[in-house]
TrEMBL record:
InterPro entries hit by this protein: ACT-like_dom_sf (IPR045865), ACT_dom (IPR002912), HD/PDEase_dom (IPR003607), HD_domain (IPR006674), NT_sf (IPR043519), PII_UdlTrfase/GS_AdlTrfase (IPR013546), Polymerase_NTP_transf_dom (IPR002934), UTase/UR (IPR010043)
Cofactor(s) essential for the protein: Mg(2+)
Protein name (record): Bifunctional uridylyltransferase/uridylyl-removing enzyme
Domain of life, per lineage: Bacteria
Amino acid sequence: MSHPLDTSDLIDADALRERLTALTAPHDGLGTDRKVRSAVLAELKAAMRAGREVAQAHLRREGGGLACARRLSHLQDELIRVIYDFALAHVYRITNPSSAERMAVVAVGGYGRGTLAPGSDVDLLFLLPYKQTPWGEQVVEYILYMLWDLGLKVGHATRNIEECVRLSRSDMTIRTAILEARFIWGEETLFQELQTRFDADVVAGTSSEFIAAKLAERDDRHKRQGMSRYLVEPNIKEGKGGLRDLNTLFWIAKYHYRVRRQSELVSKGVLSRSEYKLFVKCEDFLWAVRCHLHFLTGRPEERLSFDVQREIAIRLGYTQHPGLKDVERFMKHYFLVAKDVGDLTRILCSALEAQHVKSPHSTGFTGLMLRLKSPRGPSAQPIREAPGFIVENGRINAASDMVFREDPVNLIRVFQVADRLNYILHPELMQLIHRSLSLINAALRDNPEANRLFLSILTSRNQPEATLRAMNEAGVLGRFVPDFGKVVAMMQFNMYHHYTVDEHLIRSIGVLAEIERGGAEGENPLASQLIKSIQNRRVLYVAMFLHDIAKGRPEDHSIAGAKIARKVCPRFGLSAAETDTVAWLIEHHLDMSTYAQSRDLSDRKTITDFAQIVQSLERLRLLLILTVADIRAVGPGVFNGWKGQLLRTLYYECEPHLTGGHSQLTRKEVVADAKERLLEKLTHWTTVERQSYVGRHYPAYWMRAEIDRAVSHAELIRRADARNEKFAAEVRTHAFEGVTEITILAPDHPRLLSSIAGACFVTGANIVDAQIDTTTDGFALDSIFVGRELPDDADERRRGERITDLILKTLRGETPLPEHIAKKATMKGRMKAFRVAAEVLVNNSWSDNYTVIEVSGLDRPGLLYELTRAIAGLNLNIASAHISTFGERVVDVFYVTDLTGQKIANISRQETIRERLTEAVEGKPEPAAAAVPASA
């Protein structure tokens, strides 16, 4: 900022010096005594603590991030000056110093910019005229130990001027540090000499080298931190769009133009006045967030994780609005600032990069800034299909500054041409687009040609994701589709979504295009197959682009999104039938995922209900593809083989209902057919064994048992009978689905599934599904599916066997689970940031044979164990359990009956179920129950 900063209330350095001097009086003015040093350190600590409290109070009262960072830097400067003066006057006193016994204390790196966060490193250069002397070593050591004892993390180097120059030539990190060097105390003439030598011997003639290094460094950093600036837990210092990007911008401009302050970049023509104001505004906001973050956590934390976002939002004064929480409003502002940082760095860095490529040995860079218009080079070629645009070195540029004013449709056309011809936009053109955004008005949005071009971009077979992201970064996309503009930079405060809403929508288009190109056949075979046969691909792309466009509104986003689709699809040029399909897909875009992950797919009612929603095979195909792309675009690792298998199962079960090929066999005929198919597989059994075995299962088992699983169960039970074992188990790995199946045979008991869930939790196994069956002779046959952890089948099988071993010990009564659970069930750190209301639904319409209980709430360790204990305590039998987690939110669904095998019809009992399970979700204690005894 240009106005002087009031730092008078931070520290009174003169008074502090007097107090420190007074401490030496009993020792003839010397501060070498240990007690004196301890007392000096105590005074310094008190001064630092008081100064930081003042700085934090200013921050909370005024909100200025840069002001806080500069106050903390000033406080640090004064402390170093006081320590330096004390060392020279009272510890290592010299009356007649030689020319070598001189020193300058210099701030370098971030501290050199005159800004510090509460937890920042203090980077110092002790600058000498010649080689080090014993006196110099003692003074440096004294200062460093004092700073370390103050609890500061100090980066330091002791060098003479010649060493600084020599090392700066060969080491870009040292060169950058000295670029930002700032004199603190000591011999200022040494510092001035260093600056003169640095300019003449290091900087002169090396702009190209420095710029290339900084751009490469920036790209490497972005790769490490995550290429998107829209990650929902961003790193405010190192992440894309963070403070380091602003530093890079200033380093590059400062190196070339040799300015000391950012404001000088305006007079140099590097930044316009508005760009400079935007630079300062972004920097001030990011510093405010960073200082609050350090003060809040008490450590140099740079990641805005979920557990601190809400408190930072409150500190910064954000409030809740309809459809958006306070923390979501704060994070939206953060991402808009990150986007502005991206605009600023791209304006400068892209231009420098382009100039650097053209003339790698040039040091003039006279055409550095995008604003400066130079005649088009002889290599510029007009684009025949797009008059008004030319191609220069593989980049599209405007032939004149009037290209958009003369025809605003060109604001859309230029992106369509770039996509079709596989060109990128020249930095000059990007800035011209920025300056022309006001031309995107209602007339352009209603222009048929503009909408045709946009639909061409959206449905492109080239790289629609990259083109849409460029449109979004340029500000065009949010203005051309205003409803999309409302979700730009919008963050959803949950652990499920990894990106902002606009970034998720653009990524989902990329995933869809990848599926269509055949690049996802290994992971998504069915979607890759179906997309080849859909009748109208553009309804799929439009629905994908719009499916979350109504996020952040009070109304359900699926319903509101369908309304938006009915408004914008005709504008895009879609027919009434196409618009209906898009609106239906958006309204139901979560249904297939919900049914697949939360309902029993072996229950015929699940399939008929879902088929009634879908109603046509084409819609089923479109919905399957859209669902896969949507989940995959949420973030890395969210889509897995198990979810893919559930979606495929739902598709294949639903398909016959929609094609008229569904079997009309009666329940009795289905059971008889299942038994017959199993008997055909057991020809190595005796006739007596086979007939006896098929009588051991109830009809419900035969209705849902797949033939391979039924054979595996039969062999397991036969082996247990031969050994006269009450308990038996089997492990099967399913690599493609990403799960391991554990089958347990044990005497039936109401708390059986609870004990299995507890044992799985203790071993760290994550249950994703469970199928529970009971035999006619009193045994339970439970199939538990746990998430796979190890890539090798043999290793994963051994892991499954370890889990199985603990389950069997638990069932035999050898391991008391409640104690284990109490020790392990502690809330994970990030989970504490979320509040999810517990909700329990008891539904008798979702299944013909079972009452379905859906439990949702905040996920926590051991929750499934607590829920299954509570269900057993309510004297309910669980037939199947389906466990889904969406970040911090869990949705567990149980198909249950009472102990007589009937649905729960009594209203009073349903209310009791809701109350008990709500208490279990909220963690209210239930009386401990004993483990299942071996005699059960």
